[in-house]
Predict the structure of Tat pathway signal protein.
Amino acid sequence: MDRRQIIATGAASLGVACAGPSLAGEEESGGATVNLSGVGLPVITEGRVRNYVFVALRLHLGSGASAEVVRTKEAWFRDALVKAAHRTPFVVPGDWTRLDANALSASLMRSAAGIAGRGAIARVEVVSQAPRRRTGLPA
């Protein structure tokens, strides 16, 4: 893959990620969602930052929760996620290019009760993970 293709692919995925928050709304199943995109989380092993993975998340709202109210608290969700990732990294052993989606979702669900209120967020879905660095990783 040459440099032009990498840049074009990165620009295309960035454009989609930037459009994410404005596309939040009703889903096919009828539940409201709010998209959080472009949160950069570290991959920390042996006390060193080895890589960053940019994650796009979708918050599925519980009954009675308003998408507008949750969308105004987006900065708090991002902050809680970054703090949790530095405190206990969501590292997949032996892989510096992705994060543990289940641990990430569980951590944000614990924080969501304090940020948006109990029951406001039904579940957290990891939509995509894009590592900053794809080379120089352990075999």
